Structures are given as C-alpha cells and as structure tokens.
Amino acid sequence: MGKKIEMLELTPDQLKKQCDPKTFTFKTTEEIEPLYGSVGQKRAVDAIDFGVDIDTAGFNIYASGPVGTGKNTLVRAHVNKAAKSKPIPSDWCYVNNFIDPNYPTAIELPAGGGKVFAKEMDELIKYCRIEIPKVFGSEDYDRKRERSLRTYQKKREELILQASKKAEEVNFQVKLSASGIVISPIIDGKPINRKEFEKLPDEQQKEIRITSEKLEEELNQIWNSLRVLEREARIKIKEVEQQISLTAIGHMLEALSEKYVGYHKICNYLNEVEQDIIENLEDFKSDKKQTFPVPGIEMSLEPSFNRYKVNVVVDNSDTQGAPVIIESNPSYYNLFGRIDYQLKLGSPVTDFTLVKGGALHQANSGFIIIQALDLLTSFFSWGTLKRTLKSGELCIENFGEQYRAIPSSVIKPEPIPINVKVVLIGSPYIYYLLYALDEDFQKLFKIKADFDIEMNRSNKNVDKYVSFISGRCNDKGFRHFDQKAVAKIVEYGSRISEDKEKLSASFAKISDLISEANYWAKKADHKYVTGKDVDTAIKKKMYRSNMLEEKIRELVKDDIIMIDIDGQKVGQINGISVIILGDYPFGRPSRITARTYMGREGVLDIEREVKLSGPIHSKGVLILDGYLNGKYGHKKVLSVSASICFEQAYEEIDGDSASSAELYTILSSLSGVPINQGIAVTGSVNQMGEIQPVGAINQKIEGYFDVCKAKRLTGKQGVIIPRRNLKHLMLRDDVIEAVKKGKFRLFAINCIDEGIEILTGIKAGKEKSDGTYPKGTINYLVDQKLCKMAEKLKEFAAKGAETKKESRDA
C-alpha cells in the first residue's frame, strides 16, 4: 500500500520543466540577431501569404485569434512585403460633367498623372484668363469687329431709311425704340401726340387709323428684318470673338489633346472645356467683380472657374508598390468618402470639387486592414463594404440619401471600379458569428488566418524567443537580458501556456514582462536584466492583482472561512476552485461535505437546488449517480440519497473539476472511513471512475499551498491532481522547494480508487468475480452499507404494506 502511494507521489523534477541557462551559447541578448518575422504561427502565415497573392474575387482575409497573439504585427508585415512586389495603381480624378453637372465624371490616370493633369488644367485656365482679355484689347480684334459691324450698320441704315420714306409718303414720322418702330402722324408739317390726335375730327381720325394700320404692317416687316440683321450681327461678332480666342488658346488645348490622345474620357472632357470657354467668353474678358446690394449686406459676385478644376481623389504619385491602408476608424465617411457642402447666401451648395475620397479609394488595387469589431460597430459601414465588394464599384454618396423623406437634388459622382483586398482582424467569436449569421461573409471572406495561442517548446522556437527579446530591447532601448533572465522568460512562456512542452504565442504578455523586468533592472542599476529582475517583475505583477486572493487567505487563516488542513473527518474534503479576475487567476480551497441516508433520490446537489450551480457542475454531479449505480448496483437497487454542499459558497459554482472530490466525500460517508484533511483534491471524474484533466492546475495547487503556508506547513499537506495534468505543471519555485524539503506533497492519479487510498490510507479493493470486494477495503465497506440500506428500505416497505392491509381489513 505504502509503495503504491509512493509511486503516485510526484518528485520535484516532475513539477516544472526548467530552462537551463547553461544551454545558451550567448552571454546576453545583445549578441543575438533581433527577430524579424513571425514566431510559431506557420498556419496563419501560410493563410495570409495565400490570401494576399490570390487575385480571385471573394478571397479576402479574416485574421482570427485571441488578443496578444501578434495578429496586427504579422498581418502588416506580410501584407507590406507582398505589396512591394505589386504594380503601383492608377490615380483617380473627378472632373465637371458639362452636359449634366450633377453627375461628375471619373477619370483614371497612371500613378502621379492626376496631380499633373490638375496642374495642367489650372495653368490652362490661368493662361486663358490672361490671354483672352489681351486678345479683346488688340487692334486685330477691333479691326475684325469693325469690319463686321460696318456691314451691319450699312444694311441697318438702309432699312431705317426705307422705313422713313414709306412713312413720309403717307405723312407719318418714324422713330426707333427698344420695343420696335414707333410712328406718329404729321399735321401741318408737325408730328402730333395722342391728345392732339383725339381733338381731330372723327373722319380725319378714322382716315389716319386706316393709314396707320397699313403702314405698321409694312414697317413690321422692316422691323423683323432689323432684328434678323441684329441677330446675324451678334452671331458674327461672337464668331469673330470665338475665332480670335481660339487663335490665342487653341494651341494649349491642342497640346493637351495630343498628350492625352490615348485617353478617351480626357479628350472628350477637353472638347467640352473648349466649348464651355467659347460659350462663356464674358467670364474671361475682365477680372472686375460685379457688385450688387443686398439689404444690409454689400455683395460682390465674380465668375467662378472651379468648373474647370480637376479634383484628384486618389494620388499615388508617392506610392511604392500597391498601397497598404490601415484604417483605425472605419466609419462610413472614412471608408467610402463623402460629399462636402458649403454655405452660399445661407443655403448649402456643393459641386464635384467637394467630393472627397475615403480609405477604400486610397487602397484601390492594394490592401486595407481593418479591425472587425470597429467595422461592425460603425453605422452603415459593414453593409456598404459588402455591397462594394460584391458590385466591384465604389460609389461616393452621403449616407442617408436613400432614407430621405423628401427627395432632394444631389450630385452623384460616377462610380469607380474597385479591386481591393480586405483584411479583417478580430476574435474567433466574431468570425464564427459572421460565418453563421451572414451568408455574404462566407462568400466574401473565404480565407481564415487562424492564430494559435501557443507553439512547441522546441530549440528552434526557444531561439526565436531569444531573438524576440533582443529585438524588443533594441526597439525600445531596453537593457539586454542575460542567460538566466532569458531562461526565466522561457519558463514564463510555458507557464502561461499551461504546458511544459509549449510556449505561449501571446507576445503581448511576453513584451509586458520584458518591459517590467527592464524597469526593475534599471531601479537596481543593473547593466543587464538578470533572472532576479524577471522574478521581481513577475512577483510585482502578481502583487498588483492579488488583493482579493490575500483577503481570502486571511479569512482562511483566521478561520472565518473554515478550511481544515490537518486531522481526519468523515464526509468532508478540501476541493480547489479557480477564480479569474481579469488576467489574474488564482486557486481557492473550499470545504466540500456530503451526508448519506436511505432513500431513492440519488445524489442531491444543494447548489443546484438553490440555483447556484452552473450546467457543467450540475452535469458533474449527475455523473456521480452513474458511477455509484454502475459500480455498486449490479445485484441490488441502490437505496441511498446523498446531499453534497460547497460550504460557505455564496456565488455561482460551475465546472466539473470538483466532481472527484464530491465522490470521495460520498464514499467516505458511506464507508465511515475519515478523509485526511491535509490533502486537497482537484479533477473531474467520468462514469467509469477515470480522473480527467482540469484547467488552471498550477493556480489551484499554488492557491492551496499558500493557504497551508499561511496556517503552517506540516509536511502532511498536499494536493491530488489528475495524472493527465502532469504535462501542464509549471509551478512556482517556492512550491517546488517545499516539495523538495518534504513540507508539501503532490500526487497524480488515474482513477478514483487510487485517490481514495491516498486520502484514507486504506485499500480501495478490486471487485472479485462474484461481484463482491475484499473485506476491510473501502469498496467493501461502501457495498456493505448500501446492502444494509437496501434491506432496511425493504423492511420499511414491507411494514408499510402490512399497515395498509390492516387498515383495509378494519
């Protein structure tokens, strides 16, 4: 018996995988090449490299992983690397649509061409504003204009003379006004007015009216001829102006047209610009402002030349390779652009020059990196991004336009074709939610880059840890680490991964420890960071977070929370739970008790009855029923009830790591054999009696150790753990030291029978072929007690039946 228990007891070497500083070939990390690239994320790297290289639509990337696994750093590094080898994308501009200004035209140009084209158009208009006024002040213009006007003037005089002759023939006088030809009758050689006309005899008035009507018909024809003549004169003058203007600016327009001969949209645009300049020469003739009064305000108005500007919304003149945009605030306007407004005369107005591009415009033909949670919590952003990726077109419109109660006239810039690779970075939880609830997500984000939280503790990965430390020290100007300090960091990486053969891939936590260790080395004035500095950083980090743990420990020490760590008691044991406060988990021992009695209710969980039990804990308790019936109920119906309670527990309890401890209390209560109170237990049990591994094993052991240390270590205290948890042991040095000195003990077991023997000092007993157990063993005592309970229950049932019969007979 003693030899068997001795085999189950763990040695100090099994409690932690040490990192021997002597295995390192360097003295300090100053000698080590800094880390460039990823550590332990081969799966994620392969996915990202595939995603950035494939051009098929829908193969966007979702980088999934917990916080601190280096998702952002790794994604940026690999995307930037891939972007360098890709071609530089085009520039995009918006220009005025002279046919319909509400629909600005999008123009694509080679990288840097947008800025050049905008400058050329500015210079063209500047040149026009200088040269056109000069042309209209030249002698050549005056001469051509006079020549055209001379011909018109001669014909006009002939028509006016013809009108005058016709009027004189019938004694009328002709005058020209803005509204037409005005005639007046002549009496006694003088023209008369209306009052004088009304004084004439009726017959004479009648005669004058008849003559006047005939004369007006003839003069109207002459007036129409005059109007036609004036219109022809204006057209002729305009033609002269246009011709002379074209002689001044035509060579500039021709030069631009020849330069952009391969760009159909630009050539059409330049033709429209030429036509608009010719039709609006008055805007170019003078720089004088037109002024007009508004009540209370003196306003001035000058011609606007903004319609000739080029609005460059994407400028890749300084871009090297494909663009990589990291959008930290993926709001609707930041992603998709916007249309600004300006107040003029109290009213908001806009035009194509106020169209602004967004991050997706800048990332076109490249990459954009967005945090998934930020994107999903930004109003309209997620839905619009999906529509953009599905349509392949990027539209700029202010959100809410489609929801206006009253339609309003707004500009609608021409959509720009888009081909962008979107990389979302987020948690696995968001990925699974989107995949399950949004069918578009499945179609658009076909590549999952899964980041692991751990990696193998191989020599190669340990070397990468060392390089990471070196790189961190170089980047931040920290003191470099010596061999012992590096060894401590490696051991810490295994501890937070909860596996001897693994290292944590949560480099945010490793970086924090490096920073804190450097701080304490600086405080101690060490040239290099030592192992003691790392230990100090770990202890101080724990100290900042363990106030509640210390208060619980004080309550145990003062016997406010009742925990026995010595002696023996029936139906009572110390279980260990874990409490997680943010990033700080710690173990807390709890007294578990069980009472057994006759009945058929089975195992009663008091926590479950009062709704303080989580579903996993309730499942663990129900498994105990299965174990008891399967082990002892082959030849009899179990007639036992048991109540289990976590004493002094006032919060919800969940998890099944205490199920083995609960089973031990039931076996102790049934057998009447007391349990060693110095040995605490953790581990879940299945219906076959096998002990299953649990989480936070190091914190649970250390939590019980700290309680025992606070109350007094006797050498009889210890913890029973599942043997399958051996690979997870990375205990503190003080716990290992106590084990070395025989002040604390640890046992690893595979089944319930091994555990009950350690706790009671009595053999469990194997079932014999006839279904019984060897006398004096725990299982024998339990089986006998269950048999007696079954017989007693039968006796009670028989007496109850006789009593009922007597009552009926009476």
Structural features, described:
There is one protein chain. With about 800 residues, the chain is of the alpha/beta class. The protein has four domains: about 40-90 and about 320-450, Rossmann fold, CATH 3.40.50.300; about 135-285, no CATH class; about 455-540, Helicase, Ruva Protein, domain 3, CATH 1.10.8; about 565-790, Ribosomal Protein S5, domain 2, CATH 3.30.230. Helices cover about 50% and strands about 15% of the residues. The protein has a seven-stranded mixed β-sheet, sandwiched between helices. Helix 4 (about 115-135) crosses helix 7 (about 200-260) and helix 23 (about 660-670) packs across helix 27 (about 780-810). The longest helix has about 60 residues, at about 200-260. The protein is elongated. It starts with a helix and ends with a helix. The mean pLDDT is about 85.
Distance between the termini: 61 Å
The residue ranges in which pLDDT falls below 50 over 5 or more consecutive positions are: none
Write the CATH fold name of the largest domain.
Answer: Ribosomal Protein S5, domain 2
CATH architectural label of the largest domain: 2-Layer Sandwich
Integer tally of domains? 4
Overall pLDDT level: 86
What spatial form do the alpha-carbon principal axes imply?
A: elongated
Number of helices: 27
**The first-level CATH class name of the largest domain:** Alpha Beta
What share of the residues does DSSP label as strand, in percent? Answer: 15-25%
Secondary-structure-based class equals: alpha/beta
Number of strands: 32
In what order do the strands lie side by side in the largest sheet? 25-26-24-23-28-31-32
Rg of Cα set: 48 Å
**Largest sheet report:** 7 strands, mixed
Helix content: 40-55%
